[in-house]
């Protein structure tokens, strides 16, 4: 499964946030037989359509898609100079498909800031500098080998070109994710700043409703996406029943919890989308890459569905709601039979036909 790694300076609220991520009961519901690593937190991707489908089909249960987060640990200034970022840290962060960087915005004299002052911009620059230095070291280590291999013609010249272009960009202080360089030839290097980033501003309640301040912080990280949350409130929300949680959200001027936002934006950042299946047993969302075709989508349910794929009967969620039932949707010509080249759309309600 795709995972998002959580990084940030010490004392910014990573553990508080991560505790909220691991305290929910998603694990028990979705992974009854799996052993989950202690440093993995899983959250449901909120999807109101599932409740609607469960109503139409009389489903016994609802299974949303999920997003997984890995707690990667803190980064300190100068880490890349001294002993480096640490092998375990590097191994963990290389494996993550996207990075959520937690940035401290909350003010609390009882919680020491590593630099003694709350300055999100400084913090972002510190972390980015460490990650860029780590990438530079990785590239500089690989370059002599690439040069040799290109001379011997055992690898393509594009590899060396991409590595040199990346090195230049990093030396100019640019994150590789925004450099526009095609890094496919050097994918094996697992470059840290080439990954998609989400920025999580852990702020005081007052900032959650301060749109001007949020816009300032958003501008610091654009075009990457920003999520605003109060990690302390998140850890309280997770312990409340839905009605009380809704009340607390409203009282703090929010319409959606930070964890829900994080799941939604994380999911999109990973390039994922969902399609839906529904029946009396369950209404369920299935995770596929954006642009996936029907057989690949079927394969997420079972590999046999992909191998024996014949057709997909697809009704868009909106058409299903408008007609009220599968039978009515069919009668009104809203149920389409799609073949193996069909590109799945978000919110397709699907039943696969396959050979066994
Ligand atoms: P980490 O080092 O990044 O994992 O940070 P922690 O999650 O351990 O948080 C460090 C301290 O800051 C703890 O005492 C937390 O209770 C506190 N803290 C975390 N988030 C918030 C927040 O949103 N507001 C306030 N006031 N304190 C927070």
Automatic annotation (TrEMBL):
It comes from Microbacterium bandirmense. ATP binds at residues 11-16. Signal peptide: none annotated. ATPase that binds to both the 70S ribosome and the 50S ribosomal subunit in a nucleotide-independent manner. This is Ribosome-binding ATPase YchF. Belongs to the TRAFAC class OBG-HflX-like GTPase superfamily. OBG GTPase family. YchF/OLA1 subfamily. InterPro entries: ATPase_YchF/OLA1, Beta-grasp_dom_sf, G_OBG, GTP-bd, P-loop_NTPase, TGS, TGS-like, TGS-like_dom_sf. Its cofactor is Mg(2+). The keyword ATP-binding applies. SUPFAM superfamilies: P-loop containing nucleoside triphosphate hydrolases (SSF52540), TGS-like (SSF81271). Residues 2-249 form the OBG-type G domain. CDD domains: TGS_YchF_OLA1 (cd04867), YchF (cd01900). Residues 271-354 form the TGS domain. Gene3D superfamilies: 3.10.20.30, P-loop containing nucleotide triphosphate hydrolases, TGS-like domain. It holds the Pfam family MMR_HSR1. NCBIfam families: redox-regulated ATPase YchF (TIGR00092). It comes from the Bacteria. Keywords: ATP-binding, Magnesium, Metal-binding, Nucleotide-binding.
């Amino acid at each position: 499964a795709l995972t998002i790694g959580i990084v940030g300076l010490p004392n910014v609220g990573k553990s508080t946030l991560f505790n909220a991520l691991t305290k929910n009961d998603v694990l028990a519901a979705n992974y009854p037989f799996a052993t989950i690593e202690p440093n993995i937190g899983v959250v449901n991707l909120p999807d109101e359509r599932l409740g609607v489908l469960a109503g139409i089909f009389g489903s016994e249960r609802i299974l949303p898609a999920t997003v997984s987060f890995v707690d990667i640990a803190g980064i300190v200034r100068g880490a890349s100079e001294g002993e480096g970022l640490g092998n375990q840290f590097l191994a963990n962060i290389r494996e993550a498909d996207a990075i959520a960087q937690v940035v401290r915005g909350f003010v609390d004299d009882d919680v020491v800031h590593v630099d003694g002052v709350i300055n999100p911009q400084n913090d972002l620059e510190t972390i980015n500098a460490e990650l860029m230095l780590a990438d530079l070291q990785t590239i500089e280590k690989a370059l002599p080998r690439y040069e040799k291999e290109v001379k011997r013609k055992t690898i393509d010249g594009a590899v060396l070109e991409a590595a040199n272009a990346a090195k230049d960009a990093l030396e100019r202080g640019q994150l590789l994710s925004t450099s526009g360089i095609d890094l496919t030839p050097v994918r094996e290097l697992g470059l840290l700043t080439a990954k998609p980033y989400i920025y999580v501003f852990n702020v005081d309640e007052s900032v959650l409703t301060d749109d001007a301040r949020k816009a300032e912080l958003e501008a610091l990280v654009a075009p990457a996406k920003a999520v605003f949350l109060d990690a302390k409130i998140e850890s309280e929300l997770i312990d409340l029943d839905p009605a009380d949680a809704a009340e607390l959200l409203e009282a703090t001027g929010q319409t959606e919890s930070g964890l829900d936002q994080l799941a939604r934006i994380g999911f999109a950042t990973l390039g994922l989308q969902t399609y839906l299946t529904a029946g009396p047993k369950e209404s369920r969302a299935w995770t596929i890459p954006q642009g996936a075709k029907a057989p690949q989508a079927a394969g997420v349910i079972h590999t046999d569905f992909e191998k024996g794929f014949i057709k997909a009967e697809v009704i868009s969620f909106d058409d299903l709601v408008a007609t009220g039932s599968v039978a009515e949707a069919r009668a009104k010509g809203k149920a389409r039979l799609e073949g193996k080249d069909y590109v799945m759309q978000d919110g397709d309600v699907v039943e696969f036909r396959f050979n066994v």
